[in-house]
Specification:
The complex is a heterodimer. By secondary structure, chain A is an alpha/beta fold. Chain A has one domain: P-loop containing nucleotide triphosphate hydrolases (Rossmann fold). In chain A, 33% of the residues lie in helices and 26% in strands. In chain A, the strands form two sheets. In chain A, strands 6-7-8-3-9-10 form a six-stranded mixed beta sheet. Chain A is globular. Chain B folds into two domains: 172 residues, no CATH class; 217 residues, no CATH class. In chain B, α8 packs antiparallel against α9. The longest helix of chain B is centred in the C-terminal third of the chain and has 44 residues. The two termini of chain B are 30 Å apart. The chains are: A alpha/beta, B alpha+beta. At the A-B interface, α1, α2 and α3 of A face α7 of B.
Chain lengths: 233, 407
């Protein structure tokens, strides 16, 4: 595995988290008093019905969404206090995202998609290209490096997305329904890959999934119901 | 694709308009000067009337001899680029078929052709020192009943030219100095009234012969060294100053300065109208760019969210969208400018064809300017950047949560 080990996983601490979206004239509460502690390097799954608040919690942890109320800490970062440049740096250097829709840019090749994430960290052109090739090799896609996303299968796209997520050695990997758009066999292979990457990097991994088979692979599982977090199962 | 076409359309229209407008201005004014320098002032060997400077035409009263001293004084005047003396002499012309008529030789310095209102229609002007060559003006074609479109048919014919003088001791009381010359060219000219353009020394010899005769009221002779001058001012806006200075020296002048000023005013109105059309085209192109980018941003909200999720800053997103707009602007500008040049060429051909069909002289409406084409490309790029500024800012400020929107 050519991946360099990250500085290890990071601890996640959520206390008294409430979150609501403005909807029409009122507001829609999606998270209610969520408290959560995740140990560094842990592999955690969040399950629950649609609209329960899983993706919202993931977004808040990754700095995509500012929390309405409460304290969210990822390692030394108090995420809900980060703004602008510091928030972008946090997303770039501490967090790696894997999306259900893969989130690949259609105009860029697999290599360029991964390279883009490395480039944002300021690495030189030659070094970032080498790094991107290493990452694609790690997910078994060296031969597909110069293909556009539309020429890749769903499983291959998700593997490119995972390579991109690991681009800057993140200490926290957030995966939102990573197998949601994949066939069961392909999804299973994708999860095995994610686990291998996690073991190689030591990152903390938080996976949101409806799929009990996916959730079942995690060390710790939480269930969401109506914005409330049910204790680990 | 549509954005690029919008830019191409705007820049193409503008390049075509600027090309036609600029060249038309220059060439229409040039046409008013009858092919010579637009800043030419004709000076006569006559004193000016008091209202001379109010008129483009010659308004003279009485003779005022023009000699080398006067030429030197005018040459040293401010804003004068060149002074070319002109000398005319009356001749009896006999064409090969025996037709006779009285006409005039126009002698001048043919080495200074670029400073004279002479435009060749066929053939060439005589060699500067030739005593056997002549160029005829279109008035000579009228005498021969030759259509100007067939001017070249008179090239090569030989004409007998006789300068008469009064000699009471001979049979009919007149003798003539005869020369045989070959027609080497046909010209349109506004140097002086006359039919034959020759080197100055040819006219000088003719006048010397004529002045050797006895005085005759039927052939009055001006003993001035020169019968006129063609003075070229340093620029169009100095033509009036030059006329004033020559007027102060006591010579009558003519120049189309008021006509050119009037035409320039009309052309300015045309420029304003064309400029207005160009600005409307630019606004439409800018709105097209902005509209297409806003649509693109709406369609790419998730991509923008993903970019931010992987660590892109607002300024990175802003830069990407501006760069995209710049590429579209440059490509659209290149395509549009080349198309605009093509349209201008086509327009020039159509207009010229129409003018010639109507029996008017053609005017070259299109002279392709590299500056206009480069300006078209750079302008398109700048326009794209300006039009993209607000959409790019909107894109840069989209929240990162767009990456997971709808999930």
């Amino acid at each position: 595995m050519p991946l360099k080990a990250a500085a290890g996983g990071v601890a996640v601490s959520v206390r008294g988290l409430n979150h609501a979206y403005r909807s029409g004239g009122g507001s829609l509460t999606v998270l209610r008093g969520v408290n959560l502690e995740i140990a560094p390097g842990a592999y955690v799954a969040l399950t629950g019905p649609s609209g329960a608040g899983k993706t919202t919690l993931l977004s808040i942890l990754g700095g995509l969404e500012p929390a309405t109320e409460g304290e969210v800490k990822v390692g030394d970062f108090t995420v809900n206090q980060l703004r602008g440049e510091r928030l972008a740096k946090f997303r770039r250097e501490t967090v790696g995202f894997v999306f259900q829709h893969f989130g690949l840019l259609g105009a860029l090749t697999a290599l360029e998609n991964v390279e883009l994430a490395v480039a944002l960290s300021g690495l030189g052109k030659r070094a970032r290209k080498q790094r991107a090739m290493d990452l694609l090799a790690a997910v078994g896609l060296s031969q597909r490096a110069h293909h556009l996303p539309k020429a890749l299968s769903g499983g291959e796209r998700q593997r490119v997305a995972m390579a991109r997520a690991m681009a800057n050695e993140p200490r926290l990997v957030l995966a939102d329904e990573p197998t949601g758009n994949l066939d069961p066999d392909v999804g299973l292979a994708a999860m095995e890959l994610l686990e291998r990457l996690r073991l190689a990097s030591g990152s903390t991994v938080l996976v949101v999934s409806h799929n009990p088979l996916v959730a079942g692979r995690a060390e710790v599982r939480y269930r969401f119901e109506n914005g409330l977090l049910v204790q680990p199962t | 694709m549509l954005t690029g076409l919008g830019v191409a359309l705007g820049s193409g229209l503008l390049v075509a308009l600027v090309t036609v407008s600029n060249t038309a201005d220059t060439n229409v004014i040039s046409r008013l000067s009858h092919g010579g320098p637009v800043t030419a002032v004709k000076v006569a060997a006559a004193s000016p009337q008091p209202d001379q400077l109010d008129s483009d035409s010659l308004r003279s009263r009485g003779i005022h001899y023009l000699d080398d001293q006067a030429v030197a004084a005018i040459r040293h005047s401010r804003y004068v680029d060149s002074v070319v003396p002109v000398m005319t002499s009356e001749v009896l012309a006999i064409s090969p078929d025996g037709d006779q008529f009285f006409g005039h030789l126009i002698g001048t310095d043919l080495t200074q052709l670029s400073n004279l209102p002479i435009a060749p229609l066929a053939g060439r002007v005589p060699s500067p020192n030739s005593m056997t060559e002549v160029a005829v003006s279109s008035s000579y074609l009228d005498h021969l009943h030759v259509d100007p479109s067939r001017a070249s048919t008179v090239l090569g014919i030989q004409v007998e030219l006789g300068t008469p003088r009064r000699e009471s001791g001979v049979g009919i009381g007149f003798r003539a100095r005869w020369i045989r010359v070959t027609v080497v060219g046909v010209v349109a000219q506004q140097v002086a009234n006359g039919d034959f353009i020759v080197p100055m020394q040819q006219t000088a010899l003719a006048r010397q012969w004529a002045l050797g005769g006895e005085p005759d009221p039927d052939f009055p002779l001006l003993s001035s060294q020169y019968t006129g001058l063609v003075v070229v001012a340093s620029s169009l806006d100095k033509v009036h100053d030059v006329r004033v200075e020559i007027d102060d020296l006591g010579y009558a002048t003519s120049a189309p300065e008021h006509l050119i000023a009037t035409v320039q005013r009309y052309l300015h109105v045309v420029d304003i109208v064309l400029g207005g059309i160009g600005i409307v085209a630019l606004i439409i192109a800018a709105l097209s760019i902005a509209g297409t980018l806003v649509t693109a941003i709406h369609e790419r909200r998730r991509d923008i969210g993903v970019l931010k999720a992987i660590g892109a800053r607002d300024r990175d997103v802003l830069r990407w969208f501006l760069l995209e707009a710049l590429v579209v602007g440059v490509l659209g500008g290149v395509v549009g400018s080349l198309a605009g040049v093509g349209v201008a060429e086509l327009l020039g051909l159509v207009v010229n064809g129409y003018l010639i069909q109507q029996g008017l002289g053609g005017v070259d409406l299109t002279s392709i300017s590299g500056i206009v084409v480069i300006g078209g490309v750079m302008g398109s790029a700048l326009l794209s950047l300006m039009a993209a500024a607000v959409p790019a800012l909107i894109a840069a400020r989209l929240p990162a949560r767009e990456a997971v929107a709808g999930e």
